[in-house]
Amino acid sequence: MTLPPILRRWEALLLLMLVVIAGLNIVYSPFYLGVGNIVNLFQLSIEKIIVALMMTLIIINGEIDLSVASVMGLSSCVTAYTFHAGWPMGWALTAGLASGAVAGAINGFWIAYVGLPSLAVTLAGLIGYRGVARILVEDRAYGGFPEWFNQLGQQPLLGPLTFSIIIFLAMFVFMAVVLHRSAAGRLVYVMGNNVQAARYSGVRVKRVKLLLFVASGVVAALAGLLYSARLGSVRGDMAVGFELDVITIVLLGGVSIFGGSGNLLGVGLSILVILNLRNGMGLADITGNTQTSVIGALLILSVLVPNMARGLHSKLQGRET
Amino acid sequence: MTPATGQLRPIDTAAVPPVLEMRGIAKRFGATQALEDVSLTLRPGEIHALLGENGAGKSTLIKIMTGVYQPDRGEIRLAGKPVTVGSAAEGQIHGIAAIYQEPLLFPDLNVAENIFVSHQNRGAVTNWRQMFREAESILASLGVALDVRSPARGLTLAAQQSVEIAKAISLNVRVLIMDEPTASLSAHEVAQLFRLVRDLRSKGVAILFVSHRMEEVFQIADTVTVFRDGRLISTRPAAEVTPQKAIADMVGREMGLFQRRAAAKKGEKLLAVRGLARAGVFEGVSFDVHRGEVLGFAGLIGAGRTDVGLALFGIEPATSGTIELNGAAHVIRSPRQAMALGIAYVSEDRRQLGLSLPMSISANISLPVLARYLSRLGLIRTGEERATAEAFRKRLSIRTPNVDLAVGKLSGGNQQKVMLSKWLNTRPALLILDEPTRGIDVGAKAEVHAMIGELAAEGIGIILISSDLPEVLAMSDRVLVMREGRQMAILDGDSATSQTVMTAAMGQEMAA
Amino acid sequence: MRWLQRHIRPEQIREFSLLLLIVAAVLIFGSMIDGYYTSRTFNRIASSVAIITVVAVGQTLVVLTRNIDLAVGSIVGCTAYFTGAQLAAHHGLPPVVAVLIAMALGCAMGAINGALVAYGRVPSIIVTLGSLAIYRGILIDYSGARTVTTDSLPKWLIDLPRLNFITIGDLDIRAMFALAVGIVVLFQIGTSFLNVARRFYAMGSNPDAAELIGMPTRQIVFSAFVLSGTLSGLAGFMFLARFGNITVEAARGMELQVVAAVVVGGVNIFGGSGTVFGAMLGAIMIAILEQSLFRLQISEFWRDAILGLLILMAVASDAVILNRLRAIWSRTELKLVTRPGTGAAP
Questions:
Q1: What is the pTM of this model?
Q2: Residue to test with chain C: of B92, B99, B104, B108, most C Cβ within 10 A
Q3: A135 to C263: CB separation less than 8 angstroms, yes or no
Q4: For A28-49, what is each residue's pLDDT tens digit?
Q5: Does residue B402 belong to any structural domain of this protein?
Q6: What is the ipTM, given to two decimal places?
């Protein structure tokens, strides 16, 4: 009844799922293994998976950031608004990123320094930042960005890889190093496990928390700009509801909603599982909404199944004694 | 300390038929035999004290009595009839209730509702007027004035415990279990609690009283039972036992005082504190610590000793007074600043405040000085981190297969050693130890004591906060005694005896 | 002052100040908008309040137990569409049966959430995040992305939103608004006086203690989700009646408005405290903002920004002001006094 420790790990289960899904895809679709399909697979959800990397750190830290999708919208709208007000594109993009930093800093201030629950603060952010975005662009759609900007979002840059994919890959490596090898990553875990022990060890917990939310804002802003580059236009309601997909990716990756545990390997695998699942279902002519349902079910099962297995396990143990 | 004079002595309990009998109870968790063949009898109107070191099986027995655990073997008889207590709720139906160290109240419900919340048959509808009235009359009968309409949130621990007692009374309990109810109470509050307990005794309730404070046990108990390693060692009338005898039963041998630490050579003055205060918590604390000196902090729990430690370490900064380190004045505002000044504080609560339990031993040891383990790229040099942990593992003989193990998997004593390593790793000049031996076994205790001696000999100044009086007396060069937020006395080696320290701690000013 | 402190609690002061804020908002908007104080304005706000309030009552129960139900928007959408489709197909369906269909469907959906949270031990945010997607996905598949249209519905349903319950002077109180108020009153009384319902507070206030004294904690959590689902089902029926045209996108994102109403209304996001009445005040505050900003024509786009600010203010004032009030209350009153012998209670 006991499994070897390596197989009990969540990452092993994800890997197994990935192999099965990819295997089915290969068997059923001749197009699956093409470079074009694989690039496309990433490209279609690239903004969400970039944000998911940063969300991993936030959730391991024991918090949550519901406002990421609204910050994506905000940064796009700020950039579009300032660009159409006559700013050079470079400055407009900087303004967009800065708006993300400000939004993150506002979240972080209330959470770290006033001690409000992140669930409530970022819910306010989710609604409020979207509101600011809508004030800026109202119900218009802004397009007409410089050609290089649109190409950045749509054309391959390095071999078959687009700029967004390169950013994602670089960020994945960077985040993995930060989270698992650097002092900052260590503090993220320590605080997620026991914030009081961290404080008693001289960790500047408020500052770390603030910086994490600022970083989350900046990454979301960046993802928003990449999204507008890919779409070629900006609207007030862009990226609405993305936060659910992002959080789903992170939690499916084995990161505990209560903080303190999880790793980027799991999240990386979870990204691959979800992308391949969507791709596979897409190739099998299953609609986007059914895909969303399946991923929702996967999210629940990812916690339910280990829970039930543990319950069963302890019941069996109890009977032995 | 005056014994309870003028109190009603209980009726001759041996003549009364027992209310609760536990016969041959055994309970096993995995590889540990938590209880083995335990038989215990409680009689109405009896205060029955339960003594034993941590892990002796007291809590397991309590949980079996209240229905939280089921025994593997053995029988529970209530008023002569065998019963099974399947859950805490069933325990309550049988008239068995427990009060824990941390009262289990509902902070958002008001006092009256907290008193009546666990009544099984209180009908479908709450009659608030009637409930307030009944709650008021119960509290009044206890001589406690509390607003029954206010939420339990914000009540002092003592007030919360009187609510728990009121709850027990409203349930007409026959057996009341009190698990270390005095651990966080001030002396005044303890006296008040004991008055309530004696009141219950005179009403014919059987009380099982668990405490680590020997003097309290002998002040209030009629019968004393000692546990060791899951077995019941002795049950005797309190009048026939002395604290020494009880301790001997607890540890399995006659135990004298701890080996007195040989005083190290006192170096130059390290720390000078004058008139330190934190508004509303403590005030007027002045003392010096020299290099190589151990300054003991004695006093009852809640006397403000930990708060002085927290002020020195910058967690809860002082609001007035001066702190001089090596002759230079500092205003300490954060733990980081305190650490930079060479101060380390080993917290009393290693699980909540001290360690990150799911993380590895080496990660815990390096945490306060993580910057020391960074490469030029800002990455952690894990090899070096592990080497440090290995060194401490040898030096403090931490028993673990390897230093990558999660701290939470270690025993209490070894966790304590990891915490000590963590702070020694900051290479402190001043080490504040807050209850460094609480809840660890005798062997580990001796090791920690030896370590304190070594550190002092190396020239570290040590502040030892401990509620274990023999420990303070044996380890300290001088003893500072606090009571209710005030410094009562500083006693020198020779003048510090259990008598003088307790006198000061209980409230008589003495010349320093 | 002492009398005041004994009979009024900080939580009630909070609800009272929200009430004042609502009055202030009405006065301010009234001075800015011509013809604001009319029956029409009232009905606009009331019909928007009614639906959100019914869902918020259920959400309050869930939040009290330290959980959250993010699936309510999807449940409202599903029940509205499904009930609409049934009524379009069977015009003869009695109104009572239609309402029961909606509530039963909501109840079943809530029960699934509740079972997963209470018995499967999956954190509610994960369960309802998942079922939010699943229920919406099922709706889209079931409907084949078709729309229930107003003209396919029976006449009684289309007339329902304009049905008056009572008319006071110029003010028409619509039946749907009266229903929502009735539900609030019912649940407010229930959660104040029914011992079964007091368990929601106990459970959220201290789950360990609740478990220890033998409260059926799993049942409590389960029933909170079932009630939330059932009330969302009822709200789905009201949604159908109000809008008539039901697309697969119906009520998408409503969970945010509902959680916002509950938080603004002073229900602690960490459980244990808050009232159904407060949640209704929160819903009213939000609806006033929404409708009035629309009328003001500065820009309806300001609505979300202001709502976000309102939530932040509500949570911040809870943390800062409410805690200070509580401290004042406990300082002056909660002293433990020892008295010799037995004295009369204060």
A1: 0.84
A2: B108
A3: no
A4: 877 778 888 888 889 889 999 9
A5: yes
A6: 0.85
